[in-house]
Design goal:
InterPro entries: P-loop_NTPase (IPR027417), Sulfotransferase_dom (IPR000863). Keywords: Transferase. Belongs to the sulfotransferase 1 family. The chain is an alpha/beta fold. It is globular, with a radius of gyration of 20 Å. The structure holds adenosine-3'-5'-diphosphate.
Length: 332
């Protein structure tokens, strides 16, 4: 396990608070249930969800240090559901008067650089006050674990067929997996995923936490589905812009701005950028990921190349059972 150690010589009240959190974190990791990890040896069950230890520590820090602003917009997602795509679309839409399409920020920095993840440990806490409004943040935390100050802000949630999520996550995590561990078979990933044991899982409870909140406050949570967006990206983008308080004007629609942003953020375009072929993104002090790993196939239904009929049936049955009565239907 690699998290930042406590400060050896606390110099301020904040430092002393930080050390208290480190102590609480160390204690939690000892007492909460453990399961097999995908990337590292173990995941830990904290408040009903499975996490790498860093995310538990950051959750404690977040509650103390993060101060939301009413204009903040959050992108929430389970891993591998299309976060990177949404980051690009949200950033390009909000900042469409700031950049020309030929020399766009995204072309040089890629979507990962567009706005920060809340979930990454940083101490002293990162100061986000310099970011222009509306500030945007991404998070993989389930809705039920977010600090109350955040939940009054607007949220965009992206969801995807769990079978494609499983395959995408298995590829991604196998790549990131500690070299000290044996290779990670799809059978093992499948079994763990079905049991809900994967980073930020269970998948179904994660999705339901946002789905239920979106039914209660549709003006605050826009619930999107990857498959619907793939089929009609322009429709999705227009709704997204309106939800974020920046609807496209008649003139913009006339000029084809929606189509241009969709094209800028397409899998084809983003995955072929130099920054996404060769660049690396750092998440806090601990994680480093090659940008290319966020772009694999970008397709609907790749699970058909990996899952047996029985595996498909088992995931579909779990999905039906978990979502029964919720009104949520996912395309598969
Ligand atoms: P696959 O592994 O199925 O190809 P996340 O961004 O949440 O980590 O999700 C990654 C998944 O989204 C990967 O799925 C990736 O290929 C896909 N993806 C990345 N950029 C995309 C884009 N612009 N359009 C559609 N899918 C995209």
């Amino acid at each position: 396990m690699s998290t930042s150690p406590p400060l050896t010589k606390p110099e301020s009240k904040e430092d002393a608070d930080y050390n208290k959190i480190c102590e609480e974190h160390r204690h939690l990791i000892e007492i909460v249930p453990k399961g097999n990890g995908w990337m590292e040896k173990h995941l830990y069950n904290y408040n009903g969800f499975w996490f790498h230890p860093n995310y538990i520590k950051n959750h404690l820090l977040l509650h103390i240090y993060f101060k939301s602003q009413p204009t903040d917009i959050f992108l929430a997602s389970f891993m591998k559901t299309g976060t990177t795509w949404l980051k690009a679309l949200m950033f390009a839409t909000i900042n469409r008067h700031r950049y020309t399409l030929s020399d766009h920020f995204l072309l040089h920095h890629g979507p990962q650089g567009a706005f920060p993840y809340l979930d990454i440990e940083s101490y002293p806490p990162t100061d986000f006050t310099h970011l222009p409004a509306p500030r945007m943040f991404a998070t993989h935390y389930p809705r039920t674990l977010l600090p109350p100050c955040i939940t009054s802000c607007k949220f965009v949630y992206i969801c995807r067929d769990p079978k494609d999520v499983l395959i995408s996550k298995w590829h991604f995590m196998s790549n990131q997996r500690s070299k000290d561990l044996p290779p990670f078979s799809l059978d093992e990933a499948f079994e763990l995923f079905c049991q809900g044991i994967s980073d930020f899982g269970p998948f179904w409870e994660h999705v339901l936490s946002y789905w239920r909140a979106s039914l209660e406050s549709p003006d605050k949570i826009l619930f999107l589905k990857y498959e619907e967006m793939m089929k009609q990206p322009e429709v999705a983008l227009r709704n997204l812009a309106a939800f974020m308080g920046k609807p496209f004007t008649a003139e913009e629609l006339e000029k084809g701005v929606v189509e241009k942003i969709v094209e800028l953020c397409s899998f084809e375009n983003l995955s072929n950028l130099e920054v996404n072929k060769k660049g690396v993104v750092k998440f806090g002090k601990v994680f480093e990921v090659e940008n290319r790993l966020f772009f694999r196939k970008g397709e609907i239904g790749d699970w058909k190349n990996y899952l047996s009929v029985e595996m498909k049936q088992r995931i579909d049955e779990i999905t039906d059972e978990k979502f029964k009565g919720s009104g949520l239907i996912l395309e598969s």
